[in-house]
Known about the structure:
The chain has helices at 24-33, 82-89, 107-112, 120-123, 151-157, 192-201; strands spanning 2-6, 13-19, 38-40, 54-57, 64-68, 73-77, 94-95, 130-136, 142-146, 166-173, 175-176. The chain is an alpha+beta fold. The strands form 3 sheets. The chain has a 5-stranded antiparallel sheet with strand order 5-6-10-8-9.
Amino acid sequence: MTQIMAGWANYPQLEAEVFEPLDRVGVRTVVVENERIIARGNGKSYGDAALAHKLLSTLRLTQVLAFDADNGVVECEAGILLSDLLKIIVPKGWFFHVTPGIKAITVGGAIASDVHGKNHPTAGCFSNYLISFDLMVADGEVKTCSRQENTDLFWQSCGGMGWTGVILSAKFSLLKITSPMMRQKNVQVNNLEELFQTFEENHEWPYAAGWVD
């Protein structure tokens, strides 16, 4: 179908032909029959990320393929949203090691953007906890990528913004939690100097964020 597409900021806007395959077979058909196309998740990036005249939406690829609730490892298709995974993993005592400020993003998008969160200085990016993923390249071949297999493709795809191919599924480790609640400390400061000093004084807290009014 043809739609007017944009990112989270709603600018720029582009008229695009959007394909919505249901499975890997459908993804391969779209990839091999279109010379120029890019994968798109839920469109929550700023700017012109995942904008082109032909887009392959992954939003129908939403299956959880495996969940090891004892060891905290999940394998899922790339189009599932973090918000939907939370409903499955949190009741079993697990959370994401890294998550950005919005949960309405796809796993594939988290890899392609190599997202970070409010614990970036200590936890790093999403790729730090990525075990492997299946990537469909331009000729329709599927390559399993990890730190041991197709290593160059693994690192080129993490933060590669979809330029290496279509991420089909991924396996990654989770963070053990004892409660869905979070202990929070609020500190009000008067200027930027105090703000930076407060960050230094509270460096042992795993998550930290500041807003300037």
